[in-house]
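Quick one: co-fold with flavin-adenine dinucleotide.
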Amino acid sequence: KPVIVLFRHDLRLADNRALYAASQTGKPVIPVFVRDEETAVSTRPLGGARQWWLHHSLTSLTRSLEAIGAKLILRQGRTQAIVDELISQTKADMVLWNRRYDPAGIETDTALKARLLERGLRAESFDGHLLHEPYSLKTGAGGYYRVFTPFWRAFLGGPEPRDPVPAPAKLKPWIGEIASADLRDWRLLPEKPDWAKAFHHDWTPGEEGAKQKLADFLEDRAASYKNDRDLPGREGTSRLSPHLAHGEITPFQIWHASKSPAIKDQNAGLDTFRKEVGWREFSYHLLFNNPKLHEDNFNESFDSFEWISSARNFNAWKTGRTGYPIVDAGMRQLWQTGWMHNRVRMIVASFLIKHLLIDWREGEKWFWDTLVDADPASNAASWQWVAGSGADASPYFRIFNPILQGEKFDPKGNYVRQFVPELKDLPDKYLHRPWTAPAVVLNSANIELDKDYPGPIVEHGAARKRALEAYSRTR
Ligand code: FAD
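Sure, here it is.
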């Protein structure tokens, strides 16, 4: 009797405990990718950028499974119904999967396990997506952590994360016909216009691409991560986030690779790096305990916040035409590459929420649709953090000045010049505040303000004052 292995966002062979356990049984293995996001109750459909990634990642997984003797079956629909049908067709008596931690995923998989066990079949789930089980870490009072530092202290005080398990060398194939969807019929790739056409310059979806990103990071960037991670004009971070979101690599693999004695860590850059991975854990800890994290204010006093709805301003933000170069560079990087540097994510989110007073949920949704790493926990938790409505939130009076942030973190303007090329000939001195440049400077840089590049859609000082007033009414 065969064993069924369910794939969802764990599109890898290495450190895939469900697949490894299946290979150890000596039974034929049927790997099935289940696309249940459209059908499971309250699941949020994947955004466009993640659909693009999913298409390529499934293509890659199909090939890797073929190389070890198995055929990936693609199915769309309710997990329960798909599993029932496959069991009756193949007489499988065992179903294995790696755990999900989004609320709908937990609900579906809990019901699935109960039903399989009731029928006397074997059902088992494994870790892999997170280093810690979100229900396992408790505060002294028995609750969950709302503040990162004590959470991380508790995590580090616990056992060392387990070692990764190897990829199975060979799988025993299932001999028999099982229907599979054709990936092309899922139409995951954008059609016209193909807004993802440049994504391939930055990304190689799939397990190999993930391994390469980790190796490049550890070799070239780890030693200077602590200093460079805040500079968007440098390739200073790992760019592992979309690979993690699709489970092409696990935090266990990252954790242990970063501790390998062969890696040089001159200035504790890797402690900082692992701590960032810890923020991902913390975000899931919050999501697990607040299933509506992307919808409901964590801090209820924000329910009465007076957001302003302005299609014009929201559109200027989305298209990178706010007149603040660092904000515009970030929003254009997002659109062109499906990713944005963390420092700039904070700046653009703060700008939307505080300068434009647009509801953080609008920004969260836009990121959900456009980020290749869109993550139910990190995205919602980070937006709430910037808004001040979240757990361990940034203080309400911290209103990033987009001019000073640009000058501090992109001092030579590499980042702005890459993504806002119409400003490339402007001297550094004016790059983050083009409207202050004298006419002669603008002329010689070939810029006509409001035509080639917009003037600021809100004035910083006035917007800051308005935000502080709005926040003080909420508190
Ligand atoms: P690195 O600096 O190399 O960090 C390594 C890994 O640690 C990342 O891949 C990521 O998994 C994790 N990590 C790093 N910083 C954070 C953080 N602040 N919070 C949670 N995890 C972190 N990250 C997502 O993965 N998906 C999202 O949808 C997402 N939305 C965000 C929205 C906003 C408004 C903000 C401010 C941040 C958001 N982040 C999100 C967190 C962070 O910006 C990205 O994880 C990071 O930029 C990914 O780049 P990297 O892999 O090169 O990071």
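If it helps, Residues 229, 237-241, 244-245, 276-277, 279-280, 283, 342, 345-346, 349, 367, 371, 373-375, 378-379, 382-383, 386 surround flavin-adenine dinucleotide (CB under 6 Å).
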